[in-house]
Amino acid sequence: MAKKVAVIGAGVSGLISLKCCLDEGLEPTCFERTEDIGGLWRFKETVEDGRASIYQSVITNTSKEMSCFSDFPMPEDFPNFLHNSKLLEYFRIFAKTFDLLKYIQFQTTVLSVKKCPDFASSGQWEVYIQSNGKEQQVVFDAIMVCSGHHIQPHIPLKSFPGIEKFKGQYFHSRQYKDPAGFEGKRILVIGIGNSASDIACELSKKAAQVFISTRQGTWVMSRISEDGYPWDMVFHTRFNSMLRNVLPRTIVKWMMAQQMNRWFNHENYGLEPQNKYLMKEPVLNDDLPSRLLYGAIKVKTRVKELTETAVIFEDGTMEENIDVIVFATGYTLSFPFLDDSLVKVENNMVSLYKFMFPPHLKKSTFACIGLIQPLGSIFPTAELQARWVTRVFKGLCSLPSEKTMMMDIIKRNEKRIDLFGESQSQLLQTNYIDYLDELALEIGAKPDFISLFLKDPKLAAKLYFGPCNSYQYRLVGPGQWEGARNAILTQKQRILKPLKTRSLKSSSTIPASFLIKILGLLAVVLALFFQL
Ligand code: FAD
Ligand code: NAP
């Protein structure tokens, strides 16, 4: 009999988990507390309890070709970076195509998840749900937690002495919807993540003055990269990833800093990160440098103290007549429906094997999906997680011993701190291609490059030098998709299609970036040759 799986949440992680369950012949039921799919990506004018809340203007910072599911490219005419409503449209088409809606129980909240009394032998779970005011208990063979991690605001008022005296308005970025009502105000935005930067830029078009207070600074990248291609298609290639892995760390870090400063000098703009050699998640914002150049936004240091109307900064400067403070200070993890003995949040961290499995369970029938922050898109990442989890549930893949998993968690955490630093915003951070490959290896979906180079050199070259998108993980192994090769070879077409709205005579020249890559490869080959 097919195993029954409870999927908690119908955001992107829940939808892809449903599909993976169906692909593996499992019997899923998804519980979604709201009336619709999409999770974070379904914009509403009002903030809802228990669901992520976004502002009206949110546009993805990962591109469509790097964010789509592996056997379901986005429509050709979709723009490369999507407004939240367009991304939701993609999820709706996806759910309809794979007939997922019939497996979702809307307006049903999961109240708690507990092990069945015979868990040691059955691995089963009791799921307590509430729908239309009625509570009910249902038994499942396995659980996929897809409840998101941008719900509970982190608002560190204790770090802001004097906030109780402040007479202006203050709120968390989660509450921000649009710039209406902020005309002519003097606004301070705390933090310099993607929320802070987006909100500061938008407000600065209406406000009298916007200030951003940052304690550590940040690298800022444009969504537009070499030859106008989306940043992630250029950054996330296997070739670049190999370079980052084989070259000495000091050189890689130095090169990263040089690359980040190519667009504008971060020191001159007051943005240079305190530790510029960390690979901490950069801000992706095309407007921020120009808003700084216009003086519409000014960068300040950490806040030292507040008075009734003014803000005093660590460097001794003061800004008076502040009307509004926006705390764009990120989120904390929270699983109100899970017992601490199952998933314990400590210092805003959880100990999960490969960000998914509690290591201490006697049966591998529980996993979290999407509880991660890769340096690339979360959508293909959640998909590979779900592909692996469903095969573990089926008994086709197994997990190592508790001791091995614990050791992996500790080592991974040390590596994370070394690469990304200790900031609260980096607790779920991971390298992109390395992590995807790790998951793909578990299910046998990682392409074998040597045999591919011999069999299909054109495809192999695209895989190695081109963007590492999700289609790569549908070429071999379980869940192979016959459209994967074509999807890889035709991606340029899908990138350019939405831009080709004015017909022009084409001229073909070899882009300089291609020549640079060839020279880079030659340099690595020579370096390796002389090392041997
Ligand atoms: P969510 O989208 O939060 O969905 C969780 C669902 O679970 C919700 O529908 C909720 O109602 C439901 N739920 C929660 N608790 C329960 C319960 N107890 N019972 C029943 N249902 C429950 N990532 C990218 O890769 N690219 C981007 O461009 C990008 N942009 C972002 C922009 C913003 C502003 C933010 C905050 C994050 C962004 N992210 C981005 C990361 C983001 O986390 C993911 O894009 C993605 O939305 C996470 O999906 P999810 O399904 O895991 O969680
Ligand atoms: P975030 O990335 O966690 O950033 C939080 C910011 O607040 C950081 O700059 C952090 O500084 C600062 N901060 C935290 N505690 C502080 C304190 N006590 N005092 C001063 N500053 C403090 O949160 P976010 O910007 O909301 O982003 C959350 C996720 O959503 C990210 O993955 C982001 O990429 C994504 N997102 C994407 C988009 C988009 O696609 N357009 C838009 C918004 C968000 P430190 O670094 O010093 O800790």
TrEMBL record:
Pfam families: FMO-like
EC number per UniProt: 1.-.-.-
Cofactor list: FAD; Mg(2+)
Principal location: endoplasmic reticulum
GO molecular function, one term: flavin adenine dinucleotide binding
Highest rank taxon of the organism: Eukaryota
A GO term from the CC aspect: endoplasmic reticulum membrane
Compartments reported by the entry: Endoplasmic reticulum membrane; Microsome membrane
Membrane-spanning parts: 510-530
Keywords: Endoplasmic reticulum, FAD, Flavoprotein, Isopeptide bond, Magnesium, Membrane, Microsome, Monooxygenase, NADP, Oxidoreductase, Transmembrane, Transmembrane helix, Ubl conjugation
Membrane-related topology note: Single-pass membrane protein
InterPro entries: FAD/NAD-bd_sf, Flavin_mOase, Flavin_mOase-like, Flavin_mOase_2, FMO-like
Coiled coil: none
Major enzyme class: oxidoreductase
SUPFAM superfamilies documented for this protein: FAD/NAD(P)-binding domain
GO biological process: energy homeostasis; NADP+ metabolic process; negative regulation of fatty acid oxidation; organic acid metabolic process; oxygen metabolic process; toxin metabolic process; xenobiotic metabolic process
Family, per entry: Belongs to the FMO family.
Protein name: Flavin-containing monooxygenase
Taxonomic source organism: Nannospalax galili
